[in-house]
Each structure stands twice: as structure tokens, then as C-alpha cells.
Design a protein that fits this description.
single chain, 404 residues, Neuraminidase, 6-blade_b-propeller_TolB-like, 6-bladed beta-propeller
């Protein structure tokens, strides 16, 4: 019988140990990937401990809608054009205030109503190339202004051919999300209502949002691209998404019309091409923060859609999720960098991640939860700030620099 030499024996043992460690490591990495993502193709997994390659600094440069000049009751949405003008939607007055790049007030567009030069309910405002788009869901239309003179308004009625699509039979025809693409077409998310409308107070209801493309005339021009789920709650006579607790998938588009869709329960983003075909995805192994009564009281409901005092009064009646949403916001800047806000253990702040299109980390920074970032454009961020005493709001502009 031939015996192995000691050298050969120990080489064999070391080789076996290396194989075992490799298998354990691979198994450990697989265990860290959520089960629902394991079969997803073209998925890139990043470590939550990834170190930023750069640091970012901010300098405050302007205010828009100072509390003394223009009294903005509650900001619904804002937009910024290439010249730096800022357009602010006042939800209470259904008007749009226009400010110069230096913060000086320029003019007001529209007022509440359903006649000429009036708005019923402005849900969103977007700027693309030389056009200002104002979406009014109650009128099923989008109003389009030229930015040269803020005139030549035209109205485009949306999804008039929705009756041709059986899946949209229960969409009312409410478009929950509308995104303007850089070729003057649209991505629209139709919210599908449950069969029954008999809901109990504080009942959670699962809704589904179906996404389609609309052409430049507002007609549906594609089959369904994808869908997302959203939890709504019967609160105060309304059935709405309490986003601060339940989160909501975030959607944004690149300059090439690629579509980014986030998952609120994980640090996970899917990427679709302009035609809605899945391309790739990325995932960070990010910790989930327990949603507790104490964390709520420590500032977790700042700037919620619902009044904080109303939610605190009824908090025990809400069937809350176990964890806070991981991703709370997602923006994309003019260089197609993703800016993603995540829930932190410190309830007074969000931790923002700036990522390449691929999902690779560029930098991180902390930002006050009560001053949310609304727009990132041309080396500036535009935030929404609320006066603690009066509740009045304004936009604050900061210049930022990312230095490696």
C-alpha cells in the first residue's frame, strides 16, 4: 500500500478546506439575497458596507417663496427649468408660482377652478425640454405651456382609448402616476381599484398599478409594461397610501427614457428600457429598521401627506408593517445619477445614496427628514422647508459639489 507523503497530504487537506470555505461563502451570500430576487436575471448585488469613493458638500444659495413675500400654504410639487427658474405648486390655492434663479418672484400661473387659466386639482408638475407639463387627474388631462413666454397653453386628454384595454376596466380611469418622456410621450400608471368598496375604518387594502405608454396625443400606445403593488389605508374618510409607514415603489426615468423602479421593502431597483423590457437590477444588503411606537414619536412622520397629529392620535388603530420602508425616495439628476433616500436609525434624518446608473455607490450623506429633497439639477438640490410655527412652506436651493 502506497502512503501519501506528508507534503501531499497537507496540500490535499488545504485544498479541501479552501473548497469548503468557498462553498460556505457562496451559501452565505445566497442567504443574504432575499428569496424573491434569487432567480432574477442580470442582478448585481452590492454590500451595504460599500465605502463611498467621493464626498459631497452643500452650500445654501437661495430661497423661493419666502414667508414674507409669497405665502405658500402647502407645496404639492415643484419643477426647475434649464435657466434655473423654479415652479412651485401651491396645493391649497391650485396655483403655480414662478421664481427666478435668484429667488425673486416672477409671476403666478392659474388659480383654482375649471375655467380658462384655472386648475382643478394639480397632482404633479414636470419640465421637459421647452415645455411645462401640469397634470390634473380630476380632468383626466395634462396642460402644456411653452417655457419661452409661459403662454400657448394646450390641453391633452389622457387615455381616451382605455376602453380598448380590458385590464383597465377598474381604473376609473384614474392615472395615479404620470411621467413625461423626453420625446413628448408619457408613461402612465393606472391604479386598479378592488371589486368591493365596502371598507372598514383603518383597513389596509392592496392596490395594483398598471403601467402603459401613451403617445403624444395622450392615447394608450402599448400593452402593459409592468405593474407594482401599493398598500392603501382607510383613514379619515379617505382610502390613500400612508407612504411614511407603508412606502411605495418609486419610479424615475433617465435622459434615455430608461425606467428605474424601486422596491420599498428592500434596497432593490429594477431597470427597464424605454419600451418597458426588463434589462437589469441591483440590490444592496441594507438593514431594515423596526417600526415602533418610539421611533414614530422620535420624528418618523415628519412631512407626511397626512397630518402628524392625526396619525399619532389614531396610531393604535393602524395595522402597521413590521419595518419602516427601506427606500423612501428616488430622484435622478441631469447626469443620470440616482439619488436614493433610505430610512436611518436616527429618525431625524434620511441617509441619501448617490449612485451611478449601474447602481455603483458614488457617495452618501445625511439630510434632515423634515427638509425633503425635491429636485436635483445642474449641480443644485432644491428642498422643501416648513416653518414650525405657521406651517408655511418654501423651497431652498443648495449648490453641491461631489469630490473624489
Amino acid at each position: 500500500m502506497n502512503l501519501q507523503s506528508p507534503k501531499i497530504f497537507w496540500r490535499s487537506v488545504l485544498f479541501s478546506l479552501l473548497i469548503l470555505l468557498l462553498l460556505i461563502n457562496c451559501s452565505s451570500q445566497e442567504d443574504e439575497i432575499p428569496e424573491k430576487l434569487r432567480d432574477l436575471k442580470n442582478l448585481t448585488v452590492y454590500s451595504a458596507n460599500a465605502k463611498p469613493e467621493a464626498i459631497v458638500s452643500f452650500q445654501k444659495v437661495a430661497n423661493y417663496g419666502t414667508f414674507e413675500e409669497i405665502l405658500i400654504g402647502r407645496i404639492q410639487d415643484i419643477g426647475v427649468d434649464s435657466s434655473g427658474r423654479v415652479f412651485v405648486v401651491d396645493m391649497q390655492k391650485q396655483s403655480i408660482y414662478v421664481f427666478g434663479a435668484d429667488g425673486a418672484f416672477i409671476t403666478q400661473l392659474g388659480r383654482e377652478g375649471k375655467g380658462p387659466d384655472e386648475f382643478s386639482t394639480i397632482r404633479s408638475l414636470q419640465i421637459c425640454k421647452n415645455r411645462l407639463y401640469v397634470y390634473e387627474p380630476d380632468q383626466y388631462q395634462i396642460s402644456v405651456f411653452t417655457l419661452d413666454n409661459l403662454a400657448n397653453k394646450s390641453s391633452i386628454f389622457l387615455a381616451e382609448n382605455r376602453g380598448d384595454y380590458q385590464a383597465l376596466g377598474r381604473s376609473l380611469p384614474w392615472i395615479n402616476n404620470l411621467y413625461v418622456r423626453n420625446n413628448a410621450t408619457y408613461l402612465a400608471g393606472f391604479i386598479i381599484h378592488p371589486d368591493t368598496q365596502e371598507f372598514k375604518p383603518w383597513q389596509n387594502v392592496d392596490y395594483k398599478i398598471l403601467f402603459y405608454l401613451l403617445d403624444e396625443t395622450g392615447r394608450i400606445s402599448s400593452t402593459k409594461l409592468f405593474d407594482v403593488d401599493q398598500t392603501h389605508t382607510v383613514a379619515g374618510g379617505l382610502v390613500d397610501n400612508i407612504k411614511v409607514f407603508f412606502g411605495s415603489p418609486m419610479i424615475t426615468m433617465s435622459s434615455q427614457n430608461n425606467i428605474y423602479v424601486s422596491d420599498e421593502s428592500e434596497f432593490f431597483v429594477k431597470v427597464y428600457n424605454p419600451n418597458g423590457v426588463y434589462m437589469r437590477a441591483f440590490h444592496y444588503q441594507h438593514p431594515q429598521i423596526p417600526l415602533t411606537q418610539e421611533s414614530i414619536k422620535n420624528g418618523g412622520i415628519a412631512n407626511t401627506h397626512f397630518r402628524p397629529d392625526f396619525l399619532l392620535k389614531n396610531i393604535k388603530s393602524i395595522d402597521l408593517p413590521q419595518y419602516w420602508p427601506v427606500i423612501t425616495d428616488m430622484k435622478i439628476d441631469d447626469l443620470d445619477r440616482l439619488w436614493i433616500a433610505t430610512t436611518a436609525e436616527d429618525m431625524s434624518i434620511y441617509e441619501w445614496w448617490v449612485l451611478e446608473e449601474t447602481g455603483e455607490l458614488i457617495t452618501k450623506f445625511e439630510w434632515p427628514r423634515d427638509e425633503p429633497i425635491e429636485v436635483v439639477l445642474n449641480g443644485n438640490i432644491y428642498t422643501r422647508k416648513t416653518d414650525d410655527e405657521t406651517g408655511l412652506q418654501q423651497i431652498v436651493k443648495y449648490r453641491f459639489e461631489i469630490n473624489e
